[in-house]
Amino acid sequence: MPIETRVRAAGGTVSGTAAEVGAEVAAVPVRSGPDGPVAPAAEIAGLLPFGLDELLTLHRAKGDPGEITAAHVPVDGRVVELLLYGVGEARPADLRRAGAALARRGRGRSALVAGVPDGDLAAFTEGALLASYRFTVGAPSGPAPLGELVVLTEAGPEAGADALERGTVRARAAALARDLANTPSAEKDPEWLAARAARVAEEAGLGIRVRDEKELADGGFGGILAVGAGSVRPPRLIELTYVPDGTPEPDRHVVLVGKGITFDTGGLQLKPNAGMQTMKTDMAGGGTVIAVMGALRDLGVRTRVTGLVAAAENMPSGSAMRPGDVIRHFGGTTSEVLNTDAEGRLVLADALAYAAAELDADAVVDVATLTGAAKVALGLRHGALFASDDALAGTLTAAGDAAGEPLWRLPLVDDYRAAIDSDVADVANLGRGGYGGGAITAALFLREFAGDRPWAHLDIAGPGRAASDDAELTRGATGYGARLLLEWLS
User: Fold this and answer.
1) Best CA proximity match to 342, nearest among 444, 250, 410, 248
2) Is the pLDDT reported for residue 2 higher than 80?
3) Model pTM greater than 0.90?
4) Where is pLDDT greater, at 212 or 41?
5) What is the mean pLDDT of residues 358-381?
6) N or C: which end of the chain has fewer CB within 10 A?
7) pLDDT tens digits for 40-79?
8) Pair 98, 126: CB distance under 8 Å
9) How far apart (Å, rounded) are the C-alpha atoms in residues 427 and 97?
10) Rounded to whole angstroms, how far apart are CA atoms 253 and 260?
């Protein structure tokens, strides 16, 4: 796991604890206020020849989340860097950004002691840990992550322990989702992804079943087989099951479905070079589902959850699916292939149809880097939400806001359904011209297979990848959706 930073709660004062653990950096929170930044009456201020307010004024600080003002103070015979770090109004999003800023400033240091104001300590922890994430194949470059973050809360160490643990579990789930998506596709194929899921299942006490190409053919999973037909590395359907410990028996069953395209060339309708460079992350939705499943027991989730990952590699070859092919999906619904690069919906269709027919779910949520249209519509920070049920849409949106992974609901426009009509099959995998709304027509395609249970589709093509570091995000795969779904399920 590439999160090397450790977070723990402690008691005492910032300066006293910094001396005790030999920390090189000590941090004091600064709130923003209508009359300017507000520094607490921290005992470490007595070690300075000037007041904290004077220092903030000198640097024109505002107390905005993530803002840092630095000075140096003598602590127990050593010089320690003092960071006055902004926490804004100490809302969860503020604390998440503040924790990330501290972790980045502490790179290369063995320990940092931080006072944290009352608020969502789990969010602060997530920010610090996720900003410490790094993924490398060879020797890592740049300074090492902060070694240890020691947290001092106003409520004391015991009160903060549960929040620290909750934040740590969610951050490590997001980091696992990032790991899976960032792994180069030369190593990562459907069989590799299934093996990683099996390792997660063993560690987390989950049930697992992996269907290979023969079982997929016997079971009628035509979409997964068609997408994987062009590759020498055959597809898999991964099924993970979680049942809560103890009694009473869970009265709710949720199915999560993830797109697991381990590399997407576009198939015979080949992507251009620029469009292919990030396609190792085209299984980000599947990685998110595996990571979420692995964290459920640690968070004490009381809902029964099944995770499905439809994994395939979309490659061009003489055996690849062709435009004009007709696929028979699980359950018998047929689709016409009009574009081999609209492959994600084909594998999801099989998994959704299987969930609808066999798993007796109370709700189904699928997660996928599905369409460039969603990215164009909403940019790089919001996931697109489509839902057949208003209550489900509302709870997912609220969970996204709380977790710092926001969703924006887009409509399932029934008038656009005609765009995916086919002359030779039940449905076509690409919308015809004259309608637009590529993310909407993709969602309408999926709706054909989702059955009559409450269903939601999260198109994470925008927020699933980041081009640069910002707050808790790191360049590359973001693990988007893991914290959102864990918040929702918890």
Assistant:
1) 444
2) no
3) yes
4) 212
5) 97
6) N
7) 777 777 777 777 888 888 889 899 999 999 888 888 878 8
8) no
9) 44
10) 22
Tokens of 267: 């198939």
271, 302, 328, 475: the active-site residue: 271
Maximum separation of any 2 CA atoms in the chain, in Å? 82
From CA 318, how far away is CA 430, in angstroms rounded?
22
Distance (Å, rounded) from C-alpha 286 to C-alpha 348? 10
CA dihedral 120, 124, 126, 131 (to 10 degrees): 160
Q: Is 271 a catalytic residue?
A: yes
Q: Judge contact between 346 and 223, C-beta under 8 A.
A: yes
CB under 8 A, 24+ apart: contacts of 393-398: 393/456, 395/488, 396/365, 396/456, 396/458, 396/484, 396/488
Residue 398 CB partners (closer than 8 Å, separation 6+): none
> What is the pLDDT at residue 23?
83
Do residues 13 and 114 make contact, with C-beta atoms less than 8 angstroms apart?
no
Q: Tell me whether residue 343 is annotated as binding.
A: yes
Picking from 486, 464, 287, the residue whose alpha carbon sits closest to that of residue 402 is: 486
Confidence at 139, pLDDT banded by 50, 70, 90: low
Give the model's pLDDT for residue 143: 83
Indicate if the pLDDT at residue 1 is higher than 60.
Answer: no
> CA torsion angle for 19, 21, 25, 27 (degrees, to 10)?
-80
Q: Which of 188, 280, 345, 483 is catalytic?
A: 345
Residue 341 annotated as lining a ligand binding site: yes
Q: Mean per-residue pLDDT for 171-175?
A: 97
Cα gap 36→315, rounded to integer Å:
57
Say how many C-beta atoms besides its own lie within 10 A of residue 248's C-beta.
7
The DSSP secondary-structure symbol of 270 reads P
Write out the DSSP string of 230-262. TSSS--EEEEEEE--SSSSPPS-EEEEEEEEEE
